[in-house]
Amino acid sequence: MSPIAPGQLPAELVNLLALHSSFLTALSLHYAHNGTSTPADLRDLIASTTLVWRQRKVTYDDVRLLIGVLDHGPSGKNNPYYLSDYGRGKICIEIKDDSPMMSGMTHMNEEGLQDMFKEGLDTLWSQWCTSQKVMARPIAVPKRGRGRPKKADFKQARMETFLDDTSMSKFLAQLPLADVTTCDSLTALAPAQEKGRKRLREFKESVQQGRAPKKTRPSAGKENEPALAQTQQAQPVQAKITEFAAVRKTNLLDRILAKQEAAKSGPATPTPAELERRAALQRTPEVLGVLSLLCANRPGMRVSFSTTTLLQALQGSIRSPISKEEAMKCVEVLANEVAPGYVSVVSMGSISSVVINQMMRPTDIKSRLIALGA
Asked: The domain containing residue 284 runs over which residues?
């Protein structure tokens, strides 16, 4: 059979040639952006080929078929491409190291690859015709006008193969698909991945065993021992387990009651009011210093302040933040316990004031606070 010419091809083979041309265009764009040393991911390449071809969605088997035709042609050894599996569904097209078509080239030879594809397709077509014993015959050319059609001329140059409706589908179905080789790095990592998967399975099994309800295992007896003896042996064991659980429950209750008794006999927990009093006693030296500074700017031995003004002064002068309630508690502790004569709180209806008598300023504050339990 002579080499295939575009005018002699059926529509299915014309579409296949167009698909291969679109595939080469998409691959050329990939190499233009990423370089020929970068493997082309088949998922991205299929999407690009679909956009270039615009006939239908290109599939993974379509690309395998295109490379398979290149491999099985007369120049199949010169095919520069092969498919490599990187695992996790990633398959890439790579360039062979010893490919003569890409040796020393930085771009694709699309025309040469398209001719190689045509040669491979022509070779597979000839082989299929021989295997199917399809005979070639000349096609009769009808006359123009009336009358019977012109007889076939056996000397005409153009010869075409007679095909029925199913022959082309059979031919396309038997076209070879390119093999997918496993990447070297994936092969090297396979033992480690299998080890990790084994550990994961063991972990899941251990978790399931832990969640499963525990079943009572009967005690294993001798082979010739009757079943009744095993049942009698299991009953005392169950009774011992029940007795141990009851004793443990009783011991736990005794420990709880003992802790409650120890808490009652020990020192009582201070109440919130007692805690507020202790905090006020601890702030007493700093509050006395603020009161001395306030009185230094006032004439006379007795100085009075409105409660609101004094509380605001204490809040602005004490280093640690203090609320109005805590400041008022400090003033009350000073007036009632620490320095009753020095500080006094006077209330007249809704008006409240604090009076400071500088003649009664206490001298030994530390001993007084220790005596009060600060």
From this structure: 272-372
